[in-house]
Amino acid sequence: MIRNAPKFKEWGASLITIHGRSREQRYTKSADWQYIRTVAQAAAPLPVLGNGDILSYDDYKNAMETVPELTGIMIGRGALIKPWIFTELKEQKLWDISSTERFDILKKVYKLWTRTLGFRY
Fold this sequence. Notes:
The chain is mainly α. It has one domain: Alpha-Beta Barrel (TIM Barrel). It has a 3-stranded parallel β-sheet with strand order 1-2-3, covered by helices on one side. The protein is globular, with a radius of gyration of 17 Å. One of its GO terms (molecular function) is RNA binding. Its EC number is 1.3.1.89. Pfam families: Dus. This is tRNA-dihydrouridine(47) synthase [NAD(P)(+)].
């Protein structure tokens, strides 16, 4: 990946997303944000999104500080585990909500997913 990064723009890429963990690692290790930084530096001037283990505003902030070359962050599993993570990012703080509020949000998300994917609940 790193040795090919300088060629991405030449190959027609306008933006790249880098995940800090390999498929083989699955969730056995934390995302390697130094690797993401190395790829982002090698891919410059392309915009780069980093991905991996963003589960809170603090994770987002730490990633952006660790890799200042990033254009932004892509969130995957964090949005599935904690759908209100985007509120945390917008408000730039931990969104501490009650278990009742969490359950209400998760019910809404479940209904949206089942409608979108065609399942009945």
